[in-house]
Design a protein that fits this description.
CATH superfamily of one domain: P-loop containing nucleotide triphosphate hydrolases
Oligomer: single chain
Number of strands: 9
Radius of gyration: 19 Å
Helix content: 25-40%
Bound molecules: adenosine-5'-diphosphate, magnesium ion
Length: about 270
């Protein structure tokens, strides 16, 4: 399906001058699935926003699904954006909106203006919205208002919206941060299965290392705006992870040489 993406010498600083990303070189083949991990402040959200074309990089080249977004006309950019689905950590859903409307909004970028307006007034594809929600065991909440849901349920509505969108590139920014461990695991399982079935390129930032190790074939470690490692998951050692989170984990325990395998074995049993 999609054409993957590539970054060349990408750099970004936020307005107050702090460097959020620098010298990022990365590419992904169509249908590849990868997790991006690293301490908070590493630049994961900035990276995902750039990939979703919500933020324009200050330095470097980016190509997404075969296009350079910032060289496109506004019509072409809108078309590209309709093929990119970003699952937010806290989905920006209007509190009074019905779940069904929030899910259907996933396709607004693909629908005509008229169909979009009608959909906001009256849900045009209730079955489609139900099917997306049902994949996350949330079908029965179709007509609830968004402010009647918990944080974890809202995250699942945000995911259903992107599944309904049927993007070619699926991005997720800590998509299960408000869910309990069992539901987190199940939700990431569903997302990776969905991406495999549809051949969708999928990149998710995760703070739960075990889930990243368990479900993703490739892992990217980001720290202070730079890529520390980019490896097939079986090659990610406990030592690399300890270095990645060095300031967060007190007294990293480097003596347990078999720990890397232990982590992998433990996670595969979950
Ligand atoms: N809107 C912003 N304005 C200024 N600095 C920001 C903004 N958003 C993020 N940053 C800074 O950019 C760096 C990367 O942040 P972010 O991409 O949110 O990291 P992560 O998602 O890995 O926690 C951090 O130092 C953060 O403080
Ligand atoms: Mg973040």
């Amino acid at each position: 399906m999609g054409l993957g993406f590539s970054f060349e010498k990408l750099g970004y600083s936020h307005s107050k001058g702090k460097v959020a990303l620098q010298g990022i070189e990365l590419s992904a083949n169509p249908g590849e699935q990868m997790a991006i991990v690293g301490p908070s402040g590493a630049g994961k959200t900035t990276f995902l926003n750039i990939l979703a074309t919500g933020t324009r990089p200050l330095v470097g080249q980016i190509e997404i699904l075969g296009k350079r977004p910032w060289e496109l006309s506004s019509v072409e950019l809108k078309k590209l954006r309709s093929k990119i689905g970003l699952i937010h950590q806290a989905p920006p859903l209007p509190p009074k909106q019905r779940v069904v409307t929030a899910v259907l909004a996933g396709k607004l970028g693909q629908w005509s203006t008229l169909k979009s307006i009608i959909s906001l007034l009256y849900p045009v594809d209730i079955t489609g919205a139900y099917n997306s929600l049902a994949q996350l065991d949330l079908g029965e909440r179709l007509f609830d208002r968004c402010d009647q849901l918990s944080g974890g349920q809202l995250q699942r509505v945000g995911i259903a919206r992107v599944l309904y969108q049927e993007p070619e590139l699926m991005l997720a920014d800590e998509p299960v941060s408000a869910m309990d461990p069992v539901l987190s695991d199940l939700t990431i399982k569903r997302l990776t299965q969905y991406a495999s079935e549809k051949g969708v390129t999928f990149l998710a930032s995760l703070h739960d290392i075990e889930i990243a190790l368990k479900w993703f074939p490739r892992m990217i470690g980001l720290r202070e705006g730079k890529i520390m490692f980019d490896l097939p998951t079986p090659k990610v050692t406990q030592k690399l992870l300890q270095e990645l989170y060095a300031s967060e984990m007190d007294a990293p325990d480097l003596n347990r040489s078999a720990q890397s395998t232990a982590v992998l074995q433990k996670s595969s049993k979950l």
